[in-house]
Amino acid sequence: MASVAMQTYAQRAAKQTNPAARALLETIERKRTNLCVSVDVTKQADFLRIIDTVGPYICLVKTHVDVIEDFDSSVIDRLQELSAKHDFLIFEDRKFADIGNTVALQYSSGVYKIASWSHITNAHPVPGPSIISGLSSVGVPLGRGLLLLAEMSTKGSLATGSYTEEAVRMARANRDFVIGFIAQHRMDGVGLREDESSPDEDFLVLTPGVGLDAKGDAMGQQYRTPREVVLESGCDVIIVGRGVYGKDNAADPDAVRVQAERYRAEGWKAYQERVGISA
Ligand code: 5BU
């Protein structure tokens, strides 16, 4: 069998046992898009309008639900309607980072009840494996998936070297719930000790810090192109925020649509080149 990076999304979907991982790969294949749009805006009307506009071009929408100022539970109902209408999954970028008991409460309860609507969420590995036990006690019965933050896109990130390797080891020990990583590169075989043989593993790699027109922002963000991310670094999903909807939250839907189509096309072309499918 070819290395995971050379396999198609459909081939990889068939082997996934976690329901969220399988659904994401199947959606990518069905819609021919590896684009995830990150919708970081503060008004629910802007949030829902942008998602309705980009919906046809994405496999996944990424949220930071706690930045919505006028949040109420109807936002989640509308988000779920849009997810059904446009056939995409939902990823709340919550970046859990506490002890198991606390993260289980933060994931299941509070104002947002993230586990009840978000197919995928993520966690910092910094507390060690107990963060996975806490989150999986809530997420596994619901068929959810977890991504560990193995690397970050920001200048000076501390998530490098042995920290990244430990994150991959933690994921390997929790394959029922950990479906992959937020990272800047493929993680296949990372962190294996000399006496360990290379396992048959397929972790998804979702990658933020993607932009076609800028190299970064004024607050440490660093951008690479879809081609660098998908073809050169072997990542599976490109996560794009301001590159799609700009700095102006009220951006004209036509302009947002054009950018979403552009990123979708770039991401898909890079994937086709990676697996050797001619366009
Ligand atoms: P941007 O507008 O494309 O820069 O938004 C990127 C999004 O991805 C934003 O929601 C961040 O919180 C998120 N992100 C990131 O940019 N870099 C990282 O390493 C991680 C998340 Br983890």
TrEMBL record:
Q: Which UniProt keywords apply?
A: Decarboxylase, Lyase, Pyrimidine biosynthesis
Task: Establish whether keyword Lyase is in the entry.
Answer: yes
State the Gene Ontology terms under molecular function: orotate phosphoribosyltransferase activity; orotidine-5'-phosphate decarboxylase activity
Give binding positions for substrate. 40, 62, 153, 221, 241-242
Q: In which pathway does it act?
A: Pyrimidine metabolism; UMP biosynthesis via de novo pathway; UMP from orotate: step 2/2
EC?
4.1.1.23
- According to its UniProt record, which reaction does this protein catalyse? orotidine 5'-phosphate + H(+) = UMP + CO2
Q: Cite the InterPro entries for this sequence.
A: Aldolase_TIM, OMPdecase, OMPdecase_AS, OMPdeCOase_dom, RibuloseP-bd_barrel
Catalytic residues at 93 (for ompdecase activity), 95 (for ompdecase activity), 98 (for ompdecase activity)
What GO biological process term is on the record, naming one?
Answer: 'de novo' pyrimidine nucleobase biosynthetic process
Q: Where do the Orotidine 5'-phosphate decarboxylase domain residues begin and end?
A: 34-260
- Pfam families per UniProt: OMPdecase (PF00215)
Q: Which NCBIfam families match?
A: pyrF
Q: Which family does it belong to?
A: Belongs to the OMP decarboxylase family.
Full protein name = Orotidine 5'-phosphate decarboxylase
